[in-house]
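[Automated response] Your request has been received and processed.

Submitted sequence:
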Amino acid sequence: MMIIGIAGGTGSGKTTVVNKIVEALPEGSVAVIPQDSYYNDQSNLPLEIRKQTNFDHPNAFDWALFSHQIEELKAGRAIEQPTYSYITCTRLSETVHVEPKDVIIVEGIMSLYDKKLRDQMDLKIFVDAGADERLLRVIVRDMAERGHPLEMLVNKYRNVLKPMHDEFIEPTKQYADIIIPNSWGSDHNEQAIQMLSKFILGQLREQEALKHAK
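Generated structure:
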């Protein structure tokens, strides 16, 4: 089994990179664990307080549960992954059953932030995109998918996304084994993903060979 962490700022293109890696690996061999599932349970707080949550701050996450469930998967045990609602700003009662797979991808803006979680990873990746590109992607995505007005998105970027990125996300780049450039109009990320996928397949074959040798 390989545990792979994939981090990067909001709008950097992490999800696209994850999907391309999954597509390049054997079907059914990958489980993707999104960091967004591990926001704190805030059901004990009034809704008005919950709505003030800064989802881009490390304190918003249940790091203990996140790390524990990755440990469980690494030990070959299935987990009940939590689910989260941005509407009620708290954890839902429903869970997602996740079985251990050959490759576990831990994906999120701060998946490389917590040391205990990071130390469980066999490979750490940071998806890197310039601030202007990330802002444009967030605007295009949130206006199209969520109907957010432009002025609100620009204010959110200035007051929340950018300062949180600079303080908590960008510094985690130093922990990455691989940095994937991800910019519009560039095929560099395609080349990086192809190389990365071949490396992962090679590692899995080596692990399988070692099992048979024992």
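Summary generated for your ticket: The first helix runs from residue 14 to 24. The mean pLDDT is 88.
If you did not submit this request, please reply to this message.
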